[in-house]
Description:
Keywords: NAD, Oxidoreductase. By secondary structure, the protein is of the alpha/beta class. Helix content is about 30%, strand content about 15%.
Amino acid sequence: MTAPVPPARPDPPARPIVAVLCADRRPPGMREVERGADVRYTTADRLAGDLRGADALLVWDFRSSALEAAWPAADALRWTHVASAGVDAVLFPALRDSDVVLTNSRGVFEGPVAEYVLGLVLAFAKDLAGTMAAQRERRWWYREAERVDGATAVIVGTGPIGRAVARTLRAVGMRVEGVGRGGRGHDPDFGVVHGLDALTRRLGHADYVVVAAPLTARTTGLVDAAALAAMKPSARLINVGRGALVVTADLVAALRAGIIAGAALDVFDTEPLPAGSPLWSMPNVLVSPHMAGDVVGHLPMLAALFVDNYGRWRRGLPLRNVVDKYLGYVPVPAAATRD
Length: 339
């Protein structure tokens, strides 16, 4: 059962203390926040000390897992904002069960991730990696490419990123369907959405399986040996969600055995991907360093979203992108699925 979302209007003090967890780069465009608040730019090793007395926290270094260890020092915290779409790194039980409001950066990454997925689909269909390898070898290697028009994509995850992927792939003539938390027909972006319990049955229809779901207790390890075995031998897996959605050992075994034709992975259960991982050298695998949503100008966009939410918080207005901490993502009303 889903717990109620905490109130989205935590009243700030006259001059709040805002902690900002960052690594080597501070967020740009913070002058408006600095004018009206005491801003503590901090790092993982100093976070506990800087959280004491802080009213709000910006997790700019969204890959950091330092907040859980520092949480006992959060004696005044009312609001935490994460500079990413996924919030799994901060959804430890103490924060989830607290009254602290959690917001994310929904709205920044959807379009870029969808473009990246389309690029990966085209790279596989047109064998761009093979063409580039042949060019480096000065080898004239003629062969026929695949069409994407008419190919089928099963998109696992029907939130804003999954929807943007669906619209983008449909624009080049692909057939799409979704697999999400609940099934429904006549969806404006997917046509049909199947429940997670139907995942294995739907995978056999896919030429491309795109994983874009949030990481929750229910989705961890979702793509395992059984799911991979249900895919067509000619199918490719694309993961732009979270690494732990896919069981890495099962994927490596499936690729080696020819159970699926290939995989494009932008996220991994351990990041950076260790140098000894077999994924680096597999000829049917494309590896990228968690960059599908990162485009030129995305850092100012992330900072601007936080600054806008900060202004709302100071004025007592509803915050944007309030996460249901028990679901693990921002619920989207059915009427807003095309936003």
